[in-house]
TrEMBL record:
Residue ranges, annotated region (Disordered): 340-359
Entry's transmembrane regions: none
Keywords assigned: ATP-binding, Nucleotide-binding, Transport
Organism annotation: Azorhizobium caulinodans (strain ATCC 43989 / DSM 5975 / JCM 20966 / LMG 6465 / NBRC 14845 / NCIMB 13405 / ORS 571)
Entry protein name: ABC transporter ATP-binding protein
Any single GO BP term: quaternary ammonium group transport
Family affiliation: Belongs to the ABC transporter superfamily.
Record-annotated ABC transporter domain positions: 3-234
GO molecular function, one term: ATP hydrolysis activity
Amino acid sequence: MSVRFENVSFRYPGTTTGVFDIDLEIATGELLAVIGPSGSGKSTLLKLLSGFAVPDTGRILVDGKDVTHLPPHERALGVVFQSYALFPHMSLWRNVAYPLKVRGIPKTERQERARDALARVGLGDFAERAPTSLSGGQQQRVALARALVFSPRALLLDEPLSALDAALRHGMRDEIMRVQRKAGIATLHVTHDQEEALSMGDRVAVMSAGRLEQVAMPRDLYDRPASRRVAAFVGHANLWEGMVVAPGLVSTRLGELVCDTAGFATGADVIALVRPEHVVPLLELPSGPRPNVFFGHMAEDRFLGAVRRCDLEVGGGTVRIETSIRAAIAAVAVPPDAIRLLPPESPSPTRPAHTGNPS
Ligand code: ADP
């Protein structure tokens, strides 16, 4: 029940956009969440897996079988869309049973399997109801039951929660994860909501300009982003440009930072990443100069409930702070082990001029 993209590239005919050099494996039972800015290629990845676009180069394997040139209906994939796309005048069980009907399964078996699938999403008692009498969250659970009823080879989730309000969305995250885990099925989940991706994904893939920028477990992605682009896209970040001036010392516009410079030579340009919640607010100015302690002018100070987000202007730069401390902040300390050095931004990946498809 695994999914594999092998060196897949696809360009929309007559354009330079699409997805490029995609190597990706989703293991049996794994939920891989895909995030990235608008236009980065997330939907194109889904189209390629579902069969609505055919790669110019590379192969797509489902369960080890090459499906690259199979039409969508022969791929046996379950799909849940943002819009539930239920038939409004059909009972829930008939909606869920529809993929079985298309496959020629006899009515009694259809009914039984549809009722089982509805029970799995907690709607066993609603089988005779019409979708119009349900809430958005319930309708999305019906769509999930319908996607899984024919034991698909993989599950595709296309922004499944974005039509729901915040409270429902959180509950549905758990619900989808529970059902997906139980089904033990490889799942590709496309979302623009990074919190959803971090909380639901076994691994998260970040796309940028049609390429996979990084694929990692959520914590690794947040703590050890591979590039400035990933650091800036996933969570909030202080990103200070600088240069390694000696082993263990980086010069930035804020001043000098003591940190681990392993992997970077003296003279190398770097970007220092510090998550705002790792900056330590100090309530008093230190008596003498101390490494990695900065003070300046508080340019922004926003109370957001559980956290307070401040911007401290220091020299030529800004230190963004997230803290639950409410007292006046006199200075900040940046612990050396909270600093991660990244290579300077490479220009956006160049796209191949031509990928071999004459169209
Ligand atoms: P995302 O889902 O991350 O927003 P898409 O996969 O929709 O990104 O788009 C990737 C790139 O392909 C974008 O540059 C987009 O403009 C382009 N694109 C998407 N669909 C088409 C299309 N039907 N024809 C031409 N270009 C397209």
